[in-house]
Every structure is written in structure tokens, then in C-alpha cells.
Amino acid sequence: MKKIQLSVALLAVIITCATTAFVNKPGKWVSIFNGKDFTGWHAYNKTEPVSDKWQVEDGAMVLVGRGGGDLVTDKEYENFELELDWKISEKGNSGVMWGVIEDKKFCCPYSTGPEMQVLDDEGHPDAKAGKDGNHKAGSLYDMIPPTSFDIVKPAGEWNTAKMRIDHKANKGTFWLNGKQTVQFDLTGPGWDNMVANSKFKTWEGFGKYAKGKIALQDHGNKVWFKNLKVREI
Q: Quick count: other Cβ atoms within 10 Å of Cβ 91?
């Protein structure tokens, strides 16, 4: 009888471990830009086709002039990793956001979506704004500066960025060119304190949504994005 009970208990443990492993197994990497057109993307809060100020050149989506509007994914994401390459023009500024909610009461993706900064640190004045470098490339914009200001490549050169948003672990992490730049809590006192000390402290919806869209910013400067892919975790 004891042997039978032991075998049943062992079988239960094996099943539990296998089930847990299956549930926690990350998804496959999925391309979210096909390098040919804007399938899977649209302009924020709009239904018409993407503006011709956004173009596709050599497998990259390119904002060629002011007025293209911010782009957002058709799909929403909650727990995920995002990888992409970006290149910014001289004196250029842009950003990548997550947790973006489309609603007419919000003007822009940055009303709700926190931002990974994309910037020409050498040429754009925003690099000297904010506090302790928290407007520089690779920062959690206006909240946490990157661990180093030497990671980013100059204007006109490609940078590889990665973002991991894991609400199950309550952690957000950014990398730039293979090096971790920031890590932060997504909710709770740590997050609340950062927001309270930022320009977003009075913004109704900022950082409030676990699930939302990914956005690429039109800041009026030429910027390139390619090799965009997501893995849900």
C-alpha cells in the first residue's frame, strides 16, 4: 500500500512539473513587420491607411517627415519580449512605447504608454533635459537613465534594442546593443514613486494598463525601424 501511495504521489509531482513547464514555456519569436508594407500596423486612433510620410525602404519602416503620426500594432500585448533595430537621423528624436491604449480621450500613445527612448544623444537637446540623463537613448523616458551613456551608436548607425515586459514577475527591462540599460517594477510603490517624480505624475492613464499596443513615435524627425519581432512570455 505504501509503495502504491508513493507511486501516486510521485506521478502527481511529475504531472504538476510538466504542466508548470508547459504553462511557463515562452512563445516563439514572431515578426511584427514584414519588411514590405504596414500590415499589422496602423496610425494611432485612426482607421485610414498609414500616411505616406511612413515608407518602407530596404526592409525598414521609415518616417520620412513630420505628420506621419504615431504607429501602433493592431494586436495588444501584456507579457512579452520585443526586439528591433533602430536608426535615428542627426538631431533626431523618437521612441518605442508599450501598454498603449487607443481611446479618443487620449491624444497620443505617450498618454498611456511608457517609453524606451530613441535619440541622437550628441545632437538633440533633449539629451541634456530631464534628470541625470533620463532622456537619453535607452532610458525609461523621464524616469530612469541608462546604466551607461556610451552604449548607444551615433546618429545614422543601427542600434539593436530589446524590451522585456513581464507583469507576472512585475519587472520591465531594456537592453541596448546587448547591454542592459534599465530595470524597473511595473506596478507597486517602486513604479508609483518613479511616476510621482516625473512629468507624468498628473496624467490620468499613464502606465495604468498591463495590456496594450506597441507604438513607434512620430517626433517629427527621420527614424528607421527594422527586424521587429515579439515573443509572448
A: 15
Distance CA 193, CA 198 (A): 9
pLDDT at 2: 45
Reported as type and span, the H/E element at residue 183 is strand 179-185
DSSP-derived letter for residue 227 is E
Sheet arrangement for strand 41-43: 41-43, 71-73, 213-216, 93-100, 115-119
Alpha carbon distance 45, 52 (integer Å): 17
Distance of CA 20 to the CA centre of its chain: 27
Q: Are 181 and 146 in contact (CB under 8 A)?
A: yes
Instruction: Determine the Cα–Cα distance for residues 149 and 128; give it in Å rounded to an integer.
Output: 12
What is the rounded CA–CA span in Å between residue 57 and residue 174?
27
The whole-number pLDDT of residue 29 equals 98
The parts of the chain modelled with pLDDT lower than 50 are 1-24
Residue 106 backbone zone (phi > 0: left; psi -120 to 50: alpha; other: beta):
beta
Determine the length of the chain. Answer: 233
Residue 138 burial (10 A CB sphere; 0-12, 13-18, 19+): buried
In sequence order, the 6+-apart residues with CB closer than 8 A to the CB of 96 are 82, 84, 86, 115, 116, 118, 161, 163, 214, 215, 216, 217
Q: How many CB atoms lie within 10 A of CB 125?
A: 9
**Predicted TM-score of the model (pTM):** 0.89
pLDDT at 4: 44
Contact 201, 195 (CB under 8 A): yes
